């Protein structure tokens, strides 16, 4: 029981650190209406945030594998359909988010009229294209898909051995 509590606290800490990293990146991203003169400060938070987020997702998969162990076929099917619909909605939200930001910036890095002309896609104005609540949720949904896939693969391997 103590080990489960420690594991849960560790998982919650990773989640909080990931969310804080996403927020810090957002706060350090230059708004399209402002002019940046200091470079991409948010890059300082990017690597730790990615590490915390990947650890969080990995542990989320481990936790979900334990939880999903007792799911019936009907429950798994409902979950898969819900996840698929959620993922499609998140994709549309992300596309809309990207288009809105690019409109505010005057185009992408290849457009001479753009504020980010010749900057590349990851810069002080576009950090939030990659680190936002939508991509955070996409990672969680993808992790659940992964956990369900691992669970089914493990079941098939176990069945083929016996």
UniProtKB/TrEMBL annotation:
Keyword field contains Transmembrane helix: yes
Where is the chain membrane-spanning? 7-25, 41-65, 77-98, 130-150
**Keywords associated with the record:** Membrane, Transmembrane, Transmembrane helix
Domain of life the protein comes from? Bacteria
Q: Name the chain's protein.
A: Uncharacterized protein
Species of provenance? Neobacillus novalis
